[in-house]
Amino acid sequence: AGIAIRKLDGYQGSFEVEPLALGGYSTLKNVYDCEPMPEGLSSAEEDLVLGVQGNLWTEHIFTEAELDYMLMPRMLALSEIAWTGKEQKSWSDFQKRILLHYPILDSKGVNYHVAMPEGVSDNEVIVGCEKLYFETTDPNVELYIRKEGRTAELFNGKYKVTSSEQIQVFSQLPNGRKSNIRHINIRKMEPLAAIVPKDVRGPGLRCQWTNTPFTSEAALDDFSWDNSIKEKEPENARKYLKNNENGMIKLNAYLKVPKTGVYEFEGHPDWLRINDYEVMDNSQKSKRIVYRGQVALEKGWHKIEAVFLIREFLAMPVGKIKTELLWRQKHKDWESIKPYCFVPGKAS
Q: Which of helix, strand or coil describes residue 319?
């Protein structure tokens, strides 16, 4: 039998910068570090293991170039796992030797993955002066930045920004091969003013839902909600829809911000608004991965509204769509929004 040791349809870097994949995190080093022989096998059982296996499902792959991008260079790491004993493996030596393979792939017209700059969102929000820090999953690459109207320049991954602007960043291997280009939109904004909550009646979220099918937000004014309920856990809202049917869930709450600054939200909402300011619009994006949005907020209370369209879309089954929602102060730890939410509505 073969041993399936690593998915090659997982993300080779941050889901924010890599093309759509089936999920999971599977960098070149993740693949190289895998040990194909499961622990606990007897000698007789080990003799039955004939080789290694890497799976690549192609729901989101439409061209040969995209296929090559997902396979290479991870397939080279998979090959070394099959041919090299655990004691002879060396990640640092592999990194040097793999540089010799890239020109060969170039000569044969094979596309391959080049690690892109990570650590900064495509839509970055700042309040004052801030340093942005870029990093990559491959120490062999160098980072380049291109400002508007200028040529690309080598930089060390740190970029000081004081105003709204647009930049482009990419990585480059020693053979000159460049990664995909990332377009970063930096917005400097004043924090949204805090508001006074109205008709608060206790901790939790107000969950509303309908089994009416929707394909866009344009139809949201032409229906009535089936019901509403106080719900502490956002993910539990999913159970109020009938299984495998289209519909919509809306979560409303007040969010208590402990300190003025930039806050980041993560989840699968089609739309997310804070004080009616649009933080995310993912209505035309796959729900297979989570998305992030940033906004500057004053200390105090803020109204939050998250809308989830439940539908078959971009190969995502209805039953797998999630309605969890996380938040954090920028660069801090993620947490559930539940501790800071209160249900709007008159006391009953």
A: helix
Q: Which pLDDT score is estimated for 347?
A: 40
Structure tokens at 39: 């622990």
pTM of this prediction?
0.82
Annotate 247-275 with DSSP letters as a single string: EEEEEEEEEEESSSEEEEEEE--SEEEET
- Which uninterrupted H or E stretch holds 205? strand 205-210
CA quadruple 108, 153, 15, 51: dihedral, nearest 10:
30
**Do residues 179 and 116 touch, judged by C-beta distance below 8 A?**
yes
Over the chain (348 residues), the average pLDDT of each successive run of 10 is 66 85 85 83 82 84 94 93 87 94 96 95 92 93 93 94 95 95 95 87 74 63 67 67 71 89 92 94 78 94 88 63 85 79 54
What tokens appear for 9 in the block?
Answer: 């349809």
222 SS3 class: coil
Measured CA to CA, the distance from residue 247 to residue 244 in angstroms comes to 10
Q: Which two tokens stand for residue 228?
A: 């509403």
Name the residue type at position 72.
Answer: M
Sign of the C-alpha dihedral, residues 4, 66, 31, 332? negative
